[in-house]
Amino acid sequence: MSKPSLARGTRDFGPEQMVKRTFIFDTIRRSFQRYGFQPLETPAFENLSVLMGKYGDEGDQLLFKLLNSGNFSEKLTESDLNAGYKPLTAKISEKGLRYDLTVPFARYVVMNRGTLVMPFKRYQIQPVWRADRPQKGRYREFYQCDADVVGTESLLCEAEIVLLLHDILPQLGIEDFTVKINNRKILTGIADMIGAHGQEGTLCVAIDKLDKIGKDKVVDELRERNFSEESINLLDPVFSLTGGENPFADLRKWLASSEIGLKGIDELEQVWEMVESLGLKNPKIQFDVTLARGLSYYTGAIFEVKANNVQIGSICGGGRYDNLTGTFGVPGISGVGISFGVDRIYDVMEELNLFPENQTISTKVMISNFDKEAFKYGLSVLPKLREAGLNAEMYPDSVKLKKQLDYADRKNIPFVILIGSDEMNTGQLTLKNMKTGEQQKGTIEELIAAVN
């Protein structure tokens, strides 16, 4: 019989890992709720008519498609089989696993817009699937953790995202981080200024590498991408803007003739002012004119969060989009959102050893099991521990004490209550501290107080 194996690009999470992951999820969820976001869940699979065409050709190919139930090939003809995979897929598959949480969210908003209270603030923590080539740090199944506000263009939403990031990351122990912010309108203004209208995507792919390969290599790449020497020369101020003392003032002078560019600067300055008004001390925000994530998708502010002094790239990202629901025939619903990369955050916390020690503990107190009488006595003690809010269990078999203590040790259970004939006669139970080896006697109420 062959050994079982995991599907490529997926992982098991054992108890130790799950306790850590749950700590991350619970921390993020608490903050989402504190900021007024409401929970939402959508099905693991959607109709392909909902998913297809939303992520470009590459995204369509990375969708996991589900075969129709029953005899999916019953009505196929010879010509269907020879028509190529795309027409064939349409005949044998009507559904697919969700690729992200945004498109299902847009579908939900369109279907329920008559009953939703707008602006609608939702958070969603669920797995997504991509038929990608598995490699280090890239999986076919992974969790996304999104919070979005739709139905308002107010820049308060952007400022609140900055606060939310400053709330969640320190709670996870990540104190050294930078929230990089840009605005799509500024990028459009820059492209217009240098005579490369509509080429901001290509422009920013090159500029985005500035800190990795340096100015000269960026200029070479722009030449390879058919930017004129005149455009490249006009772009020169951008290279100094990224680290300037007052980038907004410098940028405002440079983009003075670009109406859309100036609007982008105004929006960012308002976000900065609101963050200050909301009382955030020493915000870790940085204007980065080269930031251009998901450019075709975003229409206003763009966010990216980096944990400093670790090898991992961005751990959160997001931005404002003006037409979330347009592909479903309901244009004009503006929104802004942020997505937390749970797997990357986990890796950062592991690398920096940030998980609280007690998070590895599932059971706090174990009751020993010496014999039939002690077992019966222990059954009356066990509920008292749980009623006091302690995670507790009793060893199920009457075996040698060494085996029971080994079990507690391997499971990182910090306390064991020993119940023998003396304890049953006197009501004075023995509490063993597994870390120090010390023992103390007391009533169950006294031992509960000692453990708490």
Automatic annotation (TrEMBL):
Record localization: Cytoplasm
Reaction(s) catalysed by this chain's protein: tRNA(His) + L-histidine + ATP = L-histidyl-tRNA(His) + AMP + diphosphate + H(+)
Span of domain Aminoacyl-transfer RNA synthetases class-II family profile: 1-383
Pfam families: HGTP_anticodon, tRNA-synt_His
Swiss-Prot/TrEMBL keywords: Aminoacyl-tRNA synthetase, ATP-binding, Cytoplasm, Ligase, Nucleotide-binding, Protein biosynthesis
Superkingdom of source: Bacteria
SUBUNIT field: Homodimer.
Alphabetized HAMAP family for the sequence: His_tRNA_synth
Similarity section: Belongs to the class-II aminoacyl-tRNA synthetase family.
Protein name: Histidine--tRNA ligase
Taxonomic placement: Bacteria, Pseudomonadati, Bacteroidota, Cytophagia, Cytophagales
